[in-house]
Amino acid sequence: MAQNDINDDETVGFENEEEKIIQYLIRGTNELDVVPIVGMGGQGKTTIAKKVYDNKRVLYHFDVQAWCSISQTYNQSELLQEIFSRVTGSKNKGYQDDDVLVDALADKLRKSLMRKRYLIVLDDMWDGMAWDDLRFSFPDVGNRSRIIVTTRLEEVAKQVKYHTDPYSLPFLPLDESCKLLQYKVFQQEGCPPELRDVSLEIAEKCKGLPLVIILVAGIIKRNKMEASWWHKIKKSLLSYLGESDGYSLTTMQLSYDNLPDYLKPCLLYMGMFSEDARIPVSKLLSLWIAECFVQNIECAEDYLMDLISSNVVMVSKREYDGKVKYCQVHDVVLHFCLEKSREEKFMLAVKGDFQPSDWKENRVSFSFSNRNLIHQCSKLISKFASLGSKTRTPFCQDLISLITTNQGGFSDWNFFRKVSETRILKVLDLSSHRVPSLSSGTFQRLIHLSTSQFIQKSSIFIHDHICLNQKL
Known about the structure:
Layout: H1 15-26, E1 33-38, H2 45-53, H3 56-61, E2 64-69, H4 76-88, H5 98-113, E3 118-123, H6 128-134, E4 146-151, H7 154-160, E5 167-168, H8 174-186, H9 196-205, H10 210-220, H11 227-241, H12 247-257, H13 264-268, E6 279-280, H14 281-290, H15 297-309, E7 314-318, E8 324-328, H16 331-343, E9 348-350, E10 363-367, H17 373-391, E11 401-405, H18 413-419, E12 427-435, E13 451-456, E14 459-464
Parallel strand pairs: 1-4, 1-5, 2-3, 3-4, 9-10, 10-11, 11-12, 12-13
Antiparallel strand pairs: 6-8, 7-8, 13-14
Helix pairs in contact: 1-2, 4-5, 8-9, 8-10, 9-11, 10-12, 11-12, 12-16, 14-15, 17-18
């Protein structure tokens, strides 16, 4: 659940839409109202919501604001905790029992909003159940509080509606599309006159989808002053996009094909993280090094900046000195990484039960949104192990990376015993787990382990070695 500090450069377009939505927020009924924004993936729903959220008139109008991304696999207590933390300014309380948290947090959030005029943004809602899980925490005391919900699904928009009809976000007109493309390629430099015609032709092919425009700009700016390069990209767009409706994903394929080979595994590795995850850059770079995608931290930082420059990775938050602290990817980019990883047998992301007989990848990421995370992970690893015993080829002999995301409870020793069977494991990230105690003997059999992280009681234990095997 990312707070609203992504895309730290200027946004272009949607000026008329921004003003319409601002009027929905500051005028109209005194009762609590929901403003649903509907649009397809990559159309700019989050962008317009961000512009409205950061508008000075909106900031002045509301007492408190909170931004929360929902994602397809959400955790109710984490959502409530996220919104409560934004509203009150308090820190997350971390690992707690969901049974205790949900009712208590819902009540605390409702009480904290009771005497305030609030604006809540619930970004990227996929399921009406998420609204049912949250709506009773938003009190209506007749002070013009508002909630913005962005969604791809019209049925979700209709379900969350109170007074305001769902707002269907239009596609960017051609002039704004061209303006966005030129800005993303040249920033403040301005587009040279000799490239304006071809930039307009390329913008027209992007069909008014901001994400497509941004991805194309990321390809173009590698050779931005060469007219022949612009025409080559225009020709590529014709062959990639054709008449298909899946412009964002097909453009993502074009972006991927134009990445240097050494950056491709780094991008695909983003699929190891859950949807809407704000990824700590220090952790990501350490994982890349442990995987031997890159040799040192300086080179890893350069790789990340190349991916950001290509517009396939977004800056989520910066340090005071300007360095990137957190990054994330658009859900379209994440979907592409998952599909491409499956196609190339690069990585498997597990979000629920599945048949281990389908498992052929040597990198696995477990991501669950409910309180049974540890049980489900242990159960699935047991399935892997039992599969290996039947085939006489242990699943773990080829496993290189094992990562879990989302918060969980205490892990038992049986879980670690099974993990210790993964003889060539190089990356073990169980930082979503808590364990009573561990000793160095736990890792004794993992002779290739480069990095591991997990929660030991109230602290994070980090185990690091140098990369021992460059060929794995």
